């Protein structure tokens, strides 16, 4: 019996899209995949007046939530933090009766300016990319969501001139399609440090 498809929500946060060589095409690609709802938070809420009811309903209607953003000072752009502060409220996402997101999955799709070897204890950033995202991982834990390893592109500033964007976009599409078709081993994805290379055993079946 075929597995039921999953609904994927991409929350895109990039405050300077006119300078984006990777995140903007990633968002465009996601917008054209059936089963994926792609939301540009800066475009939808230019004054940061987030519609909490609308955003909570979006969460209820989707199985997997992807936060897509460039890593800014080891954290998210401002609007994504505002979104978390307002939408993930007590009584909805956490607290005695706040169980509305239990069983769903959270994934960060990020671009990082530094090289991959900079994200380790001996690198100049001192921590792995997953360690730097621990606040989001703990948020997922608190609200009952499964946290998946981040899908990351390192050295993003030179990716275009080094002709690495195409490969990254192909991996992004492969990940999204497999998430929608419920072919990703979520247990394995939750244990990995990162999803940069998309290991072959990540997918239950070949596309």
Descriptive terms for the model:
single chain, 207 residues, alpha/beta, Rossmann fold, 6-stranded parallel sheet, 8 helices
Q: How many structural domains in the coordinates?
A: 1
CATH topology value = Rossmann fold
For the sheet with most strands, the description reads: 6 strands, parallel
What is the CA-CA span between the terminal residues?
17 Å
CATH C-level: Alpha Beta
The CATH H-level homologous superfamily? Flavodoxin domain
Known CATH architecture = 3-Layer(aba) Sandwich
- The amount of helix comes to 25-40%
Strand content: 5-15%
> What shape does the CA trace take?
globular
Number of strands: 6
How is this structure best described in words?
The chain is an alpha/beta fold and 207 residues long. The protein has a single domain (8-202), classed as Flavodoxin domain (Rossmann fold, 3-Layer(aba) Sandwich). It is 32% helix and 14% strand. Strands 1, 2, 3, 4, 5 and 6 form a six-stranded parallel beta sheet that branches. β3 (64-70), α4 and β4 form a beta-alpha-beta unit. α1 packs parallel to α7 (165-180). The radius of gyration is 16 Å and the shape is globular. The model has no long low-confidence stretch (mean pLDDT 92).
């Amino acid at each position: 019996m075929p597995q039921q498809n999953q609904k994927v929500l991409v929350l895109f946060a990039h405050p300077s899209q006119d300078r984006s060589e990777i995140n903007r095409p990633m968002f465009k690609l996601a917008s054209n995949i059936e089963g994926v709802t792609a939301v540009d938070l800066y475009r939808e809420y230019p004054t940061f007046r987030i519609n909490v009811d609308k955003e909570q309903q979006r969460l209820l209607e989707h199985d997997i939530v992807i936060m897509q953003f460039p890593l800014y000072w080891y954290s998210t752009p401002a609007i994504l933090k505002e979104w978390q502060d307002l939408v993930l409220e007590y009584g909805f996402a956490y607290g005695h009766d706040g169980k509305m997101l239990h069983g769903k999955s959270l994934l960060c799709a990020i671009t990082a300016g530094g090289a991959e070897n900079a994200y380790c204890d001996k690198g100049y950033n001192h921590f792995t990319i997953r360690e730097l995202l621990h606040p989001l991982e703990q948020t997922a834990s608190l609200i009952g969501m499964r946290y998946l390893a981040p899908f990351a592109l390192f050295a993003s500033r030179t990716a275009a001139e080094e002709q690495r964007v195409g490969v990254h976009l192909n991996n992004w599409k492969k990940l999204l399609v497999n998430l929608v078709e419920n072919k990703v081993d979520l247990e394995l994805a939750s244990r990995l440090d990162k999803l940069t290379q998309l290991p072959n055993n990540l997918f239950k079946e070949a596309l």
